[in-house]
Design goal:
Layout lengths: L1 H23 L7 E2 L2 H15 L7 E7 L2 E8 L10 E4 L13 H4 L5 E4 L9 E2 L7 H12 L5 E6 L1 H12 L4 E7 L10 H11 L5 H12 L11 H12 E2 L10 H5 L5 E6 L7 H7 L5 E6 L6 H4 L1 H19 L4 H9 L7
Parallel strand pairs: 4-5, 4-7, 7-8, 8-10, 10-11
Antiparallel strand pairs: 1-9, 2-3, 3-5, 3-6
């Protein structure tokens, strides 16, 4: 399993770099599959993974000005008094990327997972996206769901988009969790973009490509392979789907310092996407919990699913209990004793 997460971290990192570069010079169009066969293959893996996830209580197809946004809902009847969690996945994945985390998130919360509009998944784009439109369609979708405030959680590109959304819509944010956020806290280095190009354009020998991947990941080329359905799904998406997504905007120093809601930032110690620059930016956020997770990659939320979930549970409950004037210290004591967390 560790080898799979290493591969996934490498692969997602490369995709993130490539799509960041493309996003800087993107041409507006509608995201689409290039072939029917590619679409069938992607959704074969998509549905295979979804069968391993707790069944959602409902799904929503929310009409927005840019297309129909597909959202899964896992309703927890024991969490009616607390803000829900809203998930936004990384590039070229969709809701199945949360397969390792959902069983933890849904234990004590109502959870909504969004398939990103303009990217691969079940959302249907019908209008090209401009820079900044990501914040607008997210806001429209959650408003039509009837959600006034939520705990937002994003990974990679999803974290980048949610960071931009949250800065523009602070009144909708109970908290913001950024898991290995792409671009929002730092721009990518020239070195990283160079090695990503070598690994992906298909003009060099496989040994060169593997060396380039090793430079990005810090891992040996022996770990760069996996037949896992999630890895295969993302691989198919990267080759068979033409996305229409501008890159997230890097937040300014002023924007970071003016954030007035709780933020949790999880960074990998080996990631080519974040690194020291992201760490320094995260420290500018006044009310932020920032942690660098050792021995992880860009696939951090899958690699430390249980440990991360425990930290986030305390982070969210402290906010929810304060809002509802419930004694957090009593909850924390019971939680550390391993007692049931249901409210």
């Amino acid at each position: 399993m560790k080898r799979f997460f290493i591969f996934l971290g490498i692969f997602i990192s490369v995709l993130c770099i490539i799509y960041t570069f493309k996003g800087l010079f993107f041409t507006k169009h509608i995201g689409h599959f290039k072939t029917s066969a590619g679409k069938l293959e992607y959704f074969k893996y998509y549905e295979e993974i979804m069968k391993t996830i707790p069944s959602p209580t409902s799904t929503h197809q929310i009409e927005t000005a840019w297309g129909d946004v597909f959202i899964y809902e896992w309703r927890n009847q024991n969490a009616k008094d607390f803000s829900p969690i809203i998930l936004l996945s990384g590039h070229s994945s969709g809701t199945p990327m949360w397969s390792e985390n959902l069983e933890y998130f849904t234990k004590n919360h109502t959870v909504f997972a969004i398939d990103t509009l303009g990217d691969v998944g079940k959302s249907i784009q019908n209008v090209p996206l401009e820079n900044g439109d990501d914040s607008l369609w997210i806001a429209e979708a959650i408003e039509k769901l009837g959600i006034s405030k939520a705990h937002f959680v994003g990974h990679s590109f999803g974290a980048g988009y949610l960071a931009n959304f949250a800065v523009k819509n602070p009144e909708k944010v109970e908290s913001l969790t950024l898991l290995e956020p792409a671009i929002a806290l730092n721009s990518l280095s020239f070195k990283t973009m160079f090695w990503a190009t070598i690994s992906s354009i298909g003009l060099f020998p496989e040994s060169w490509e593997n060396y380039a991947l090793a430079q990005i990941s810090g891992e040996s080329s022996e770990n760069i392979s996996s037949e896992n359905p999630l890895a295969q799904m993302i691989k198919v998406a990267s080759t068979e789907f033409s996305s229409s997504l501008p890159s997230p905007k890097t937040l300014s120093t002023e924007e970071l310092k003016n954030i007035n809601f709780p933020v949790y930032v999880a960074l990998s110690d080996k990631s080519a996407i974040t690194g020291k620059a992201a760490l320094e930016s995260a420290k500018l956020i006044p009310n932020a919990t920032v942690k660098v997770w050792e021995n992880t990659t860009h696939s951090l939320p899958m690699e430390v699913k249980e440990e991360l979930s425990k930290e986030l549970e305390i982070f969210w409950k402290k906010i929810d209990f304060t809002k509802n004037k419930i004694q957090f210290s009593k909850y924390l004591l019971n939680y550390k004793k391993g007692k049931n967390l249901q409210i």
